[in-house]
């Protein structure tokens, strides 16, 4: 890594909890943030709105010159971005939550283009690494600062740090922990660039590659509700329902689901057809899955009453079609026990209780 003067940085970002720690880390390490371009799908048609918002986010953390260089753009090759690069002699670009960048852009900068990804790459590359870590039941994830290339989070890592995942954590908990790591990480990366050395820090990934996004694995993104795919393992269906709105379709009506519990192994004699109802009472239904069974609690009807209709034991509930769940669940099963917070099957139900549902 070549040394020399302070990196002259262009920050490409969109509103996120990581904007301020990235900026602070660059400054703390001795870099110079020359300008910020925030992603805007509306381009320059309404720049004043998000420029004011960005100034509120950063507040007095901006040096005076950069305060005049807040811009909006819908793509990296926008004339606004090109003009800033040429005018300010930018030699390093730092990206946070930006779209894929073309090779013609990536090759313009002597010090390269860096990205911040919330996982220990190559684990959980892709658009939704935090939900991926939660679905996998991991006891840790991390932050990776890496060079961008033409792939999706496939560039060479510069620095990685772990962050713990605790029982009951959600997306915001992990975002807050990641934000606390990002400032010192960028400070170290910039100091290392100035000194012509590699950043000091350990690489702690399992090196088991996985590409996760909601759309890739389940076919849609939040806030769209998911139709459950009974072919998937019970543990995966239950964890998806922790983080996404889900529903079942019965008699041509959609019924929202309040909760899903992994029931572990199927009871003897229940059959192996995914979607088969094996027990039910009131708003509760027990359903066979590709591996195991789940307890569903359906949302109450208008006025808090029972659902208008409930699948009866022996019936079949139609299944959704999640396109790549097998890819993800196979990856989870390959993870070493040392990184798993939860086992795949939490417990097995005593199915002698099923009669109480009938």
UniProtKB/TrEMBL annotation:
Its EC number is 2.1.2.2. It holds the Pfam family Formyl_trans_N. It is an enzyme of class 2 (transferase). Keywords: Purine biosynthesis, Transferase. Pathway: Purine metabolism; IMP biosynthesis via de novo pathway; N(2)-formyl-N(1)-(5-phospho-D-ribosyl)glycinamide from N(1)-(5-phospho-D-ribosyl)glycinamide (10-formyl THF route): step 1/1. Residues 75-189 form the Formyl transferase N-terminal domain. Transmembrane segments: none annotated. PANTHER family: PHOSPHORIBOSYLGLYCINAMIDE FORMYLTRANSFERASE (PTHR43369). This is phosphoribosylglycinamide formyltransferase 1. It comes from Thiohalorhabdus methylotrophus. The lineage of its organism: Bacteria, Pseudomonadati, Pseudomonadota, Gammaproteobacteria, Thiohalorhabdales.
